[in-house]
Write a structure and sequence with these properties.
The protein folds into two domains: 105 residues, Roll (Urease, subunit C, domain 1); 285 residues, TIM Barrel, CATH 3.20.20.140. Helices cover 35% and strands 21% of the residues. It has 14 helices and 15 strands. The strands form three sheets. The chain has a seven-stranded parallel β-sheet with strand order 7-8-9-10-11-12-13. Strand 2 and strand 3 form a beta hairpin. It is globular.
């Protein structure tokens, strides 16, 4: 069955070839997003079959009028930590009164997650993914990292895999308390038995990627040498690379990610000129994924997205939904923060949360024939309302 969607006031395609060519196309945002106004599209068998002007729309088996709403590609949330139990709201309250974040609170979530049953975790993760979909997210990456034992990391990945193919092994989130006096032994566990078990089934591996919290400014995270060993082992095992880098201060994470060809380096809060130059040189390979909800939740300085974009860096946006530093699953919130606090235009922020974030997962997020029909609809006539109406639930995944 084919479905014709009409009544689309503005369609974001992420494909400049689909732009409408009208005078308003002079707006750089229109060109970036491939805007088509008074648009229609046809969906068949879960894929886009046709895109264009409503006046030229072909026939289809069914027809649905969206009543002048805007349609965008579904958000791609490329950085989340959804497999966890427990509550850390008291930690948030303490930060709001001046307690700095150093990564130590992760141990609280580790203890609660280890104590939870599989069914409890499965229910929690499914609810979080549903919450994301209700806010326009159609693709989500999920990391492990709150188990930090072989069995608990494996079960975290299995549960995540039930909800997304975009799973990331983050055994190197922090060094767990039981290894505090023998960090080398924990690195050996991550790069040996844990990694072997995660990738034991080859093409059906539990994880698509490996990640590491490379942060010398935290006593709980990993330094540059440890991160290099973990990432190299993961690459040799066939996993794509992702890095938490330069979140709490200047450090080696960004340049290490670029050197090793990581798909993304995330946070990028503290960057020097050499970091920016490395990211610009790695354009097309390594994406800088910014997570402004973290800065909102930790009272940290926001990354300078304008500096990165002007330098030619591929910039993505994601939620970093997690129990400690950003318990928000809202990509529209991240977009509003990026526009208000990080120097991005509304078009750049939407592009970052769809096309570029998708690229960091190896996905093509254009609304074009042959692409998956992963779409979101706004109760508004334009994508500009995502930042303009901050905090208002105007976007949701389009159910077909």
């Amino acid at each position: 069955m084919s479905l014709l969607l009409t009544g689309i006031s503005e369609l974001t395609t992420n494909d400049p070839a689909h732009g409408d060519g009208h005078a308003r196309r002079a707006d750089p945002g229109d060109a970036l997003l491939g805007i088509v106004r008074d648009a229609a599209l046809v969906v068949a068998d879960g894929e886009i079959a046709w895109v264009g002007s409503a006046s030229e729309a072909p026939d289809a088996d069914e027809r649905r009028d969206l009543g002048g709403r805007a349609v965008i590609p579904g958000f791609v949330d490329s950085h989340t930590h959804l497999v966890f139990a427990g509550d850390r709201s008291a930690e948030f309250a303490a930060r709001m009164t001046g307690t700095p974040y150093d990564g130590g609170g992760i141990a609280v979530s580790v203890a609660a997650t280890r104590a939870a049953s599989d069914d409890e975790l499965r229910t929690l993760v499914a609810a979080r993914v549903a919450e994301m979909r209700a806010q326009g997210t159609t693709t989500v990456e999920i990391k492990s990292g709150y188990g930090l034992t072989l069995d608990d990391e494996l079960r975290s990945l299995r549960i995540a895999r039930e909800l997304t193919p975009h799973t990331t092994f983050l055994g190197a989130h922090v060094v767990p308390r039981e290894y505090a006096t023998d960090r080398a032994a924990y690195v050996d566990l991550v790069t040996g038995p844990m990694l072997d078990a995660v990738t034991a089934d080859g093409a059906t591996s539990l994880a698509a990627s490996i990640d590491v919290f490379c942060e010398p400014h935290s006593a709980h995270a990993f330094d540059g040498d440890e991160a290099r060993a973990i990432l190299t082992a993961g690459r040799d095992a066939g996993l794509a690379l992702r890095v938490h880098g330069n979140q709490l201060g200047h450090g080696p994470g960004v340049r290490l990610a670029c050197e090793l060809g990581a798909r993304s380096v995330d946070h990028c809060t503290y960057l020097d000129d050499a970091d920016v130059e490395a990211l610009a040189a790695a354009r097309g390979t390594t994406v800088a994924t910014l997570l402004p909800g973290v800065e909102f939740s930790t009272r940290s300085p926001y990354p300078d997205a304008r500096r990165l974009i002007d330098a030619g860096v591929d910039v993505a946006l994601a939620s970093d939904c997690n129990p400690g530093t950003c318990y928000s699953s809202s990509i529209p919130f991240a977009i509003a923060l990026a526009v208000r606090e990080m120097g991005m235009t509304p078009a750049e922020a939407l592009h970052a949360a769809t096309a570029v974030s998708g690229r960091s997962l190896g996905l093509d997020r254009r609304v074009a024939p042959g692409q998956p029909a992963e779409l979101a609809v706004l109760d508004a006539p334009s994508h500009l309302h995502l930042a303009y109406r901050a905090g208002v639930p105007i976007v949701r995944a389009l159910e077909l």
